[in-house]
TrEMBL record:
Organism: Gossypium stocksii
Catalytic reactions of this protein: glycolate + NADP(+) = glyoxylate + NADPH + H(+); 4-hydroxybutanoate + NADP(+) = succinate semialdehyde + NADPH + H(+)
Family listed: Belongs to the HIBADH-related family. NP60 subfamily.
Pfam families: NAD_binding_11 (PF14833), NAD_binding_2 (PF03446)
Listed name of the protein: 6-phosphogluconate dehydrogenase NADP-binding domain-containing protein
Length: 291
């Protein structure tokens, strides 16, 4: 099976490498061309524009930073819309708001093409090992056609119905994750400042009802001030912002998420946006130093 792949950031590079390793023919495009080098060394071809990739492949997958990037790759000159047509499918796995997904879906339908939104849960390592959770919505036929690729990329995939439902599910999940990361950062700081060993806190948490892979994986690294990016903080803040907008639209009061969003904004203002989202821990530690 031949697939196109647009966007070779942390996720896109890992996912396209995984497809190559599993026998797929892959044609890639990335705004910054040099980021294609490693996947090309593993057998990928390169398209000069998103349109060129779509022209060559019946299914094209994209995973791009945010709504502006997702729209630009579809609507700009040389974009997906220039070549999408009947018989061709476009699968956007970026985390965006439902409105962005709807705009892309409508434009592709007007050209006779097929669209699936399919954001993913799971980060760099699950992307490398094909353990993502895929949250798809819109066209069931394209979802079924994409199953061989989803089998490689994910450990589980869901079809959630009408366009927008994939984006909504992803934003709800990441809103919870961002809020939990802030509570975790406060807990680690409180443990340390009140005279406990924060490593002991990690051991205790891991044995109880709120044990989870995020505490287990990120906790020891946070205690070493290691924020090597798996999920960049700027993207987590984007997801909090988009989830809060979804809350506005549905009149859902979310004071915990709003406070978490402020902490991620603060972290961005401290220049931490390109680090892992666990670097929000630094905003709590900053308060410690200023007291
Ligand atoms: N990292 C993670 O753990 C996860 C991320 N996600 C989501 O997946 C998406 C990608 O994340 P990730 O790979 O981490 O992000 P990165 O920041 O590593 O990569 C972003 C990608 O988007 C491209 N891009 C940015 N702006 C534009 C633009 N205007 N036009 C064209 N391309 C553009 C970048 O190109 P260039 O190289 O030229 O900058 C790059 O390929 C985001 O929506 C994120 O929220 C979802 C699950 C997990
Ligand atoms: O959107 C990013 C999700 C990161 C994760 O699930 O660990």
């Amino acid at each position: 099976m031949e697939v196109g792949f647009l966007g070779l950031g942390i996720m896109g590079k890992a996912m396209s490498m995984n497809l190559l390793k599993n026998g797929f023919k892959v044609t890639v495009w990335n705004r910054t061309l040099s980021k294609c080098d490693e996947v090309v060394a593993h057998g990928a071809s390169v398209g000069e524009t998103p349109a060129e990739v779509v022209k060559k492949c019946n299914i094209t997958i994209a995973i791009l930073s945010d709504p502006a990037a997702a729209l630009s790759v579809v609507f700009d000159k040389g974009g997906v819309l220039d070549q999408i047509c009947s018989g061709k499918g476009y699968i956007d796995m970026s985390t965006v708001d439902p409105e962005t997904s709807c705009k892309i879906s409508e434009a592709i339908a007007l050209k006779g093409g097929h669209f699936l939104e399919a954001p993913v849960s799971g980060s760099k390592q699950p992307a490398e090992t094909g353990q993502l959770v895929i949250l798809a919505a819109r066209e069931k036929a394209l979802y079924e056609e994409a199953v061989p690729a989803f089998d490689v990329l994910g450990k589980k995939y869901f079809f959630l119905g009408p366009v927008g439902n994939g984006a909504k599910m992803k934003l709800v999940v990441n809103m919870i994750m961002g809020s939990v990361m802030n509570a975790f950062s406060e807990g680690l700081t409180l443990a340390e400042r009140s005279g406990l060993n924060p490593h002991s806190l990690l051991d205790v948490l891991d044995l109880g009802g709120i044990a989870n892979p995020m505490f287990k994986g990120k906790g020891p690294e946070m205690l070493k001030d290691n924020y090597s990016p798996a999920f960049p903080l700027k993207h987590q803040q984007k997801d909090m912002r988009l989830a809060l907008a979804l809350g506005d639209q549905n009149a859902v009061s979310m004071p915990v998420a709003a406070a978490a969003n402020e902490a991620f904004k603060k972290a961005r203002s401290m220049g931490l946006g390109d680090l892992d989202f666990s670097a929000v821990f630094e905003t709590v530690k900053l308060l410690k130093h200023s007291s």
